[in-house]
Design a protein that fits this description.
Amidase_dom; two-stranded antiparallel sheet; about 40% helix; Amidase signature (AS) enzymes; alpha/beta; single chain; AS_sf
Length: about 550
Amino acid sequence: MPPSKHAPKRPWQDIAKEAQEHRDSTIARVAPPIPSIPPKLPKNVTSIPETLLDPSTISITNAPPEELLNSLLTGQISATAVTAAYLQRAAVAQGLVNCLTELLPSRSLDRAKELDAYYEAHGQPVGPLHGLPISVKEHIGFEGLRCTTGYVSHWTNISKEDAHILQILGKAGAIFHCRTTIPQTMMHLETDSNLYGITVNPYNSSLTSGGSSGGEGALISLRGSCLGIGSDVGGSIRSPAANCGVYGLKPTAFRIPTDGYGYMMAGADTVESVLGPLSTSLFGLKLFMKTVINSQPWLNEPALIPIPWREDIQLPSDRPLKIGVLWHDGVVRPHPPITRALHLVASQLKTAGIEVVDFTPHLHDEAWAILSSLYFPDGGASEAEIMEGSGEPWRPLSKWIIKDNPCVKKLSVGELSYWFEEREAYRKEYALHWNRLGVDAVLCPVGPGVAPKHNTAKYWSYTSQWNLLDYPGAVFPVCKVDKERDVPEARFKGMNGLDKDNWKLYDAKEVHGVPVSLQLVGRRFEDEKVLAILEFMMAKIGLPFEESP
């Protein structure tokens, strides 16, 4: 979708007000009316929905997607009942954490009625996702609906057709019940924009839900959705999944279709952006990938690699599974909760007979230099022009990633070629590094800490590293922060300025009870293997660990 060339004639504040009023009007159309949200909320709102919604709605929305889908596919529950329940819970989630750009009550309920009528007439579902509600990140285009990509200037941009991914999922029987918030520029590990404000973390409103798919992360954490679509070019699926304690997958590029989604970064193909799932369960991630890839999307989107979904991935039978642990990236050491989670999982894996070895970092600081030089090859001019068109102010993290980033420069053809060569050389070096260590997958942090305070998520390299390499990464919850156990070192000596700055951000009391998640990474096009290994690990050691901070 090209940038809007016409500046709006109204003040940006008026457009933001209209955006929020539109969102509120879609929620007001839900029947019965949404329960009133208490005027004064605690920092942790995860328990609030169950005090407001009726038992039937709670039962439906608390069910894991595998259980819910089975009930839908066998006719034990109607698509209409499920959709109505998720509309209610998504609306409540919006009142608690500000995670929606709009609810889709008429569209979703009409589709649910069609599916119910089909089931009654034919005695079978329309497809593998029959009646399953799916939430959608706002920049993924719906025919006839706005697609702002987080910019005030794009309020008048209307998508001409459904994005390819929506066409596939819709044909499989999915129901799209809401759209979720994104940040300005879509280049934050935070979700905040001048159109909708800040999306907060359900476990602590002083912390971020992550970004740029932070609306998805927060909504799914509150069970306003059990499966959602996010995108990732530097951590945008994995950051919110980790911060909000849900599951997320950044697939290998060119496996999941991206045609028809709004993405404003100039020269976006210099760093492959991907669409992928967030879910309340690992099953949800697998269901999404299998359904989309089994539709053979490459037949309609030629850029995609024609690799069918490999259901029969076999883990090693002649030797133990070998997992490498990246304890830190050689630049910034993770906070105590992350390190404790790594030790917990590593020790349990060893007890279960899995080989665990140290995975040494290989020049991760160089990876960020390459990646951040390729993110904005026009020097951020396109983003500046879009924001100048509306007069909206730069959000702090937009300014940080574009204006304050010394690697962001307008590149000549020769300079761009140089960075491409550096990228490919680094990818080859890392492949050889992986070969030397001989691991099946790498267990590593998702970030340098758990969910950070607002406007402080400035270290991307635990996720962006794998974007540069185009390696798939799955995020999963492990435990929760315990202020008594996750105590900072008394005499911390930072490896460098970034390490020292990150350590200053740690506040054990503030993050007490917040989810601690980790990431499992595999090599390019090993998406199925990553999910199979994670499933094996979860079965062997009982993830996530039940803890009461």
